[in-house]
From TrEMBL:
Residues 150-163 have a biased composition (Basic and acidic residues). It comes from Streptomyces katrae. SMART domains: Excalibur (SM00894). This is Excalibur calcium-binding domain-containing protein. InterPro entries: Excalibur_Ca-bd_domain, PASTA_dom. Residues 69-123, 136-163 are annotated as: Disordered. Transmembrane segments: none annotated. Residues 1-68 form the PASTA domain. Residues 74-89, 99-114 have a biased composition (Low complexity).
């Protein structure tokens, strides 16, 4: 079962994840651009895929989205953090951020029998094409992750919608 690692430092989260999977843990920047520094062990995990509690196998691909120390997590994975045009009133406290542990589940398209319409897939998420996966914030999709299917993996490298 996938451990809950959101809010932890990458080094600690990676150690927990490595107890249940044998594949390398993928780190990416949580903000637009997806870039992380070479030394990102102390960066905070903003979201994880697969979600906490999901069934995983030793070969499951795991991706953790991170932010640098002292940086807040974006409202959605991959979102930009641009300051608001209007200043906030000091008497109004900012709203508490909603915790995020996984990408939002897209509306299903296509098969409704729980299948994903292809081989090598995990879960019951179905994306009609890579544009739909990208619009849902799920791309790239690795083999074994919800929504992956061979038809979306043009170069057959185990990563769909990566180009």
């Amino acid at each position: 079962m996938m451990p809950a690692v959101v809010g932890q430092k990458f080094a600690d989260a990676e150690a927990l994840v490595r107890q249940v999977v044998s594949t390398p843990v993928q780190a990416r920047g949580a903000k637009a651009g997806g870039v992380v520094a070479p030394e990102h062990g102390q960066w905070e995990v903003c979201s994880q895929n697969p979600a906490a509690g999901a069934a995983v196998t030793p070969g499951t691909a795991v991706e953790l989205s991170l932010v640098a120390p002292g940086t807040s997590c974006p409202a959605a994975p991959g979102a930009s953090s641009k300051p608001s045009a209007a200043p906030k009133s000091p008497s109004t406290p900012p709203p508490a951020p909603a915790p995020t542990t996984a990408r939002p589940k897209p509306a299903t398209e296509g098969p409704t029998d729980g299948s994903t319409g292809g081989s090598g897939a995990g879960g019951s998420v179905y994306y009609k094409n890579c544009d739909a996966a990208k619009a849902a914030g799920a791309a790239p999709i690795r083999r074994g992750q919800p929504g992956y299917r061979d038809a979306l993996d043009r170069d057959k490298d185990g990563i769909a919608c990566d180009k």
